[in-house]
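User: quick one - fold this with pyridoxal-5'-phosphate bound?
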Amino acid sequence: MGDNIFVTSPLLPPLEEFMPYLEKIWQNRILTNGGEFHQELEEALARYLGVKHVCLFANGTLALLTALQALRVTGEVITTPYSFVATSHTLLWNGLTPVFADIDPHTFNIDPQRIEELITPQTTAIMPVHCYGIPCDVDKIQKIADIYGLKVIYDAAHAFGVKKSGQSILNCGDLSILSFHATKVFNTIEGGAIICPDIKMKQRIDYLKNFGFAGETTVVAPGINAKMNEVQAAFGLVQMKHIDAALAARKAIYERYCELLNDVEGISYFNAPENVEWNHAYFPVIVDESYPVSRDALYEKLKEDNIYTRRYFYPLISSFSMYRHLPSASPDKLPVAETTSQKILCLPIFPDLTHEDQDRIVRLIRQYGAISENQSPSSLIVEELA
Ligand SMILES: *Cc1c(COP(=O)(O)O)cnc(C)c1O
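Assistant: Sure. Structure tokens for the protein plus pyridoxal-5'-phosphate:
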């Protein structure tokens, strides 16, 4: 038994680099409402990500809620069941009806082939997710949106820094949202952003996240309070100085996993195509029938050894009680999402995961892979990893 290893561990900026920012906040006594660090982080992120405008938010869920408001989405929205619940919850909170489309088994993202058959006169938007930071088929999705006059809002919560053919995928669709929650690649403890292509839209979003205030006595919309505060913005600014190193570390860990797991029967993983600069936000593996134990058995066994993997995404959003009555939520209409959610396991990956811990995780997966379900691993002499 070793120490606890969780699926992720938050990226923390060095305290000594954060302190001067805190001192400045204490001096200025500006804690929130679009202070200097808020503005600085919006500009720094826009430059770093290669996008036009960034609107910071208190969290990603509020960013999603507000994006739907900003685009005045109504009626039905076609989305994926294979995501974190916030994706669909923000539709319900806007009085919208989620319509679930099945996913592609290779990218885990909404299958563009399944979108058109779900469009009705009530459909006004598509809300895909770049699951694990893997880019959606953005060209096919845009083509459908253009033909039917639909908005596209990307839940890009996992897709910080991801590029396709040298271009940020955050520029795709009408709006994209990011999450800066502690568990994400880049974090501000809690936080999020809307990526937006034009300054008028940014203005509208900025009103909406601050109660709709357009001046001291002018309210132009029924806005919400979704502002990021100065302490979090400062945390983000310090974090930015270390993000390239963090992404490089993730890539190295990802590639090392691929090497070490390459010959394990029944365990397969995702390889990013040549033209994608991926962020290695997760290490999802598919545990299929040729692996001797089930995904859930592997998950439990790793847990017994203090390795806390996560079944992202199981259960499917469409199976929760507030969604399962929907016609599109029926499991027989979502066969790929159903199967994937039964076989997926996300292994620990974060910038300071040590080789030693990674070796321990891989060794256990190999051990369980070498035995049958009703034998206990300790009763067998297993091959040590070279
Ligand atoms: C994390 C996450 C969110 C929610 O973001 P918060 O910042 O936690 O509110 C939304 N969608 C997806 C896919 C996520 O992973």
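One thing worth noting: The domain at 243-385 is CATH 3.90.1150.10 (Aspartate Aminotransferase, domain 1).
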